[in-house]
Amino acid sequence: MTTVEEWPHLYHAGTPATPVLLLLHGTGGTEHDLLPLAERLAPGAGYLSPRGPVQEQGMNRWFRRFGEGQFDVDDVVRRTGELAGFIGWAREHHGLGDRRIIAVGFSNGANIALATALLHPEVLADVVAFSGMYPLGDRTVDADLTGTAVALFNGEADSMAPLASVLQLKSVLDAAGSDVHQTIREGGHGVHPSEVDGAAAWIGSRTATATS
C-alpha cells in the first residue's frame, strides 16, 4: 500500500440513518473475515472493511510485533496515523458525511482500533474490541477522550490478551474520560456468541443516543 486510495477494502453503504461499521480483522485475516458479524451487530448498517497492511510470514496484520504480545509501539503509532488517514479519505470518498463510524475489531484488529481511538479520537470515537489489550506498551496517553466510547469483550484466561493488560487498558481509558463498557467472560481468545449479543446491544444504545 502506497496511498490510501490503493488500500484494499470493501464498502457497503447500508441504510443512510445507520452507522458504518469499520471492520478490522485479526492476524492472518482478510477484509472478508468480519462481514458475517456486521448484520448481527447492526442490521442494515453500512460497513467499511480494510485489509491489514503489514505482512508477517504471509499473514496480514495491522502493525509489526517483536513476538507474541510484544508490539513494535513505534509502528503501532505510525499505523494508527495511516488508519486515521484512511478513515478520513473513506469518509469523503464514499460520501459518508457525518455518519457515525464504529470500529469493530478482533484481536490485532481490536488493538489497532483501540490505538487509533487513543491517539486520534477526533477520527475514531467508538470502538467494539473483541479480545483486545493495551496496545501502546509503556507509552502514556494524554488525550482527552471525553465523548468517546469503548466496549471491551475479553476472556479471563486469554493468554494472547492477558487480563493484566486488559485491566490496564480500561484504567487508561477511564482516566482519559472515555465511556467504557467492559465484559469479562470465562474462557480465552475469540468471540463468544454472548459477546456478539452484548456488542449489538451496545451499538444500538450508541446509535439511539446519537439520534435522540
From TrEMBL:
Query: One MF term in GO for this entry?
Result: hydrolase activity
What's in the keyword line of the UniProt record? Hydrolase
Q: Does the keyword Isomerase apply?
A: no
Stored InterPro entries: AB_hydrolase_fold (IPR029058), LYPA1-2/EST-like (IPR050565), PLipase/COase/thioEstase (IPR003140)
Looking at the record, the residues that make up the Phospholipase/carboxylesterase/thioesterase domain are 13-199
Family to which the UniProt record says this protein belongs:
Belongs to the AB hydrolase superfamily. AB hydrolase 2 family.
Q: What is this protein called?
A: Alpha/beta hydrolase
User: Which organism is this entry from?
Assistant: Arthrobacter flavus
